[in-house]
Amino acid sequence: MQGIKDLFYQDLEIRNWICEHILKFLYSYGYLEIQTPIMEERDLFFRSVGESSDIMEKELYTLDSLRPKISLRPEGTAGVVRAIFRNKLFYSGQDFIKVFYRGSMFRHNRPQKGRLREFMQIGGEFFGIKEPIAEIEVLAMVHQFLKKLPIGDFVLEINTLGNKEERKIYIELLFKYFEGNIVHLCKECQSRLFKSVLRVLDCKHEKCKRLVLTAPSLLDNLGRESLSHFDIILNGLMELGVPYVVNRNLVRGLEYYTRTVFEFLSTDGLGAQNSIVGGGRYDNLVNIIAGEDVPALGFAVGVDRLEMLIKKNSINFLEKRPDLSIIYADEYGKQQVLKWLINLRSSGKWIDCDYRDVSVRAKMRRANRIKSKKVIIIGEDEIKKKIAIIKDMDMHSEEAWDMKKSLLEMI
RNA sequence: GUGGAUGUAGCUCAGCUGGUUAGAGCAUCAGGUUGUGGCCCUGAGGGUCGAGGGUUCAAAUCCCUUCGUUCACCCCA
Predict the structure, then answer these.
(1) Position with higher pLDDT, A204 vs A300
(2) 3-state secondary structure string, A64-116?
(3) Nearest nucleotide to A273 by CA–C1' distance?
(4) Interface predicted TM-score (ipTM)
């Protein structure tokens, strides 16, 4: 299937390593893990992500024949919010909680570099704190764990969208502005105008960019509280030494964001899909889904993209090697070796054995190719004399093994 | 969803304006070395030329369809 991949061997090791690295940070910041189904009622996404977003319009995998309609999750937040409140893990007025999730997300768009139809995200959600210090903590943490990953350079872009009311007013203002200039907009933006005006700000067409330059600015239309909320975040980042760039046109495709939105972008060769972490505040979402007023914010990490970057920077991962290859040279050896294998493997070491009916030479070649650390060859001779030779493949040396001693101690 | 590139051996790729049994390197196996890796030499095995249809005396090569891969638009992690 297009854009849906099998994962194996070293790719998985890198991926698991990334997850472990990030989880360490999450735990130290007090996040606990939550797992939600990879499917939800379609309506949940409809309400949260926004009906006119691209995700809802064309990227959702939906089982239409079921009632209610079921969709594969395109992102993690909606399901987590649903789960938190359905299971009463948190309620309005309680202190706060932090949870994280990890797993596959699904979006049906055309695959390209850094974009798959099934992709993995690790995300964190922080419920209960309306103060900007929550953003500062989240951004500082993400910056910390990204910095310690061998992924090259990245930048943090940040913006504010204001609260629900400010946003509503601004959207109307913007709509009027663009409506008056509708002929100067690109085709897509002309239809965007009626669905999500904010995204016109993000358009890359020259025509639209020119119009955006003189468009009313959101910052001019924010109330004092939203402005100071944003200022406090920026100051906090500065004091913590977290570099950022304010991008006034940064809008996010998910419609539930309020106030703060941010994105960490790789500047180090990911191609066109260079966003590695995205997130923001969503103070209204809990109300939409669960009917309670709870301030919240969250972020999601694109694990596949981090994996690409790490591979590109060709970090040498410890390759897995067998500790010992056992080669039997004849029937005598074969009988003996089976017993050893079971015992030795219970120690947790990787003991390799070539069961093919081929020459000792071919088996040696294989042991060399898979980079076994040591090799032992067993045949009638060795068993009768109770002495075998253990070859150290790296040192090109040999050592005698008296079978009265433990073989485990020799490797 | 739109546009471009591409698909030949396990891998990386040659194969001209259609022309006999489709090639190379690496890898594999065997032998040189009767039971010992990396280097070297010799040989062998391995392909419905992505799939389906069409044009032709003749198709890996030309045309159509389809599937996969890939890059960009778009969107986002």
Answers:
(1) A300
(2) CCCCCCEEECCCCHHHHHHHHHHCCCCCCCCCCEEEEEEEEEECCCCCECCEC
(3) B76
(4) 0.85
For residue A253, say whether its CB is under 7 Å from any atom of strand B.
Answer: yes
Domains of chain A: 9-151+275-312 (3.30.930.10), 324-410 (3.40.50.800)
Nucleic chain B: which protein residues 98-117 of A have CB below 7 A from it?
107, 109-116
Q: Which of residues 148-167 of A touch strand B (CB under 7 A)?
A: none
The radius of gyration of chain A's CA atoms, rounded to the nearest angstrom, is: 29
Does nucleic acid strand B have an atom less than 7 angstroms from the CB of A366? yes
Q: DSSP of A111-174, one letter per residue?
A: -BTTB-SEEEEEEEEEES--STHHHHHHHHHHHHHHHTSS---EEEEEEE---HHHHHHHHHHH
CA A265 to chain centre: 14
Distance in angstroms: CA A337, C1' B70? 48
Count Cβ neighbours within 10 Å for each residue of A186-211 and write b for 16 or more, e otherwise: beebbebbeebbbbbbbbeeeebeeb
Q: Which of residues 58-97 of A touch strand B (CB under 7 A)?
A: 58-59, 75
The answer to whether strand B lies under 7 Å from the CB of residue A305 is yes
Q: What is the structure's pLDDT at A136?
A: 97
- What is the residue type of A109? N
Band of residue A315 on the pLDDT scale cut at 50, 70, 90: low
What pLDDT score does A316 carry? 65
Number of residues assigned to chain A? 411
Q: pTM here?
A: 0.90
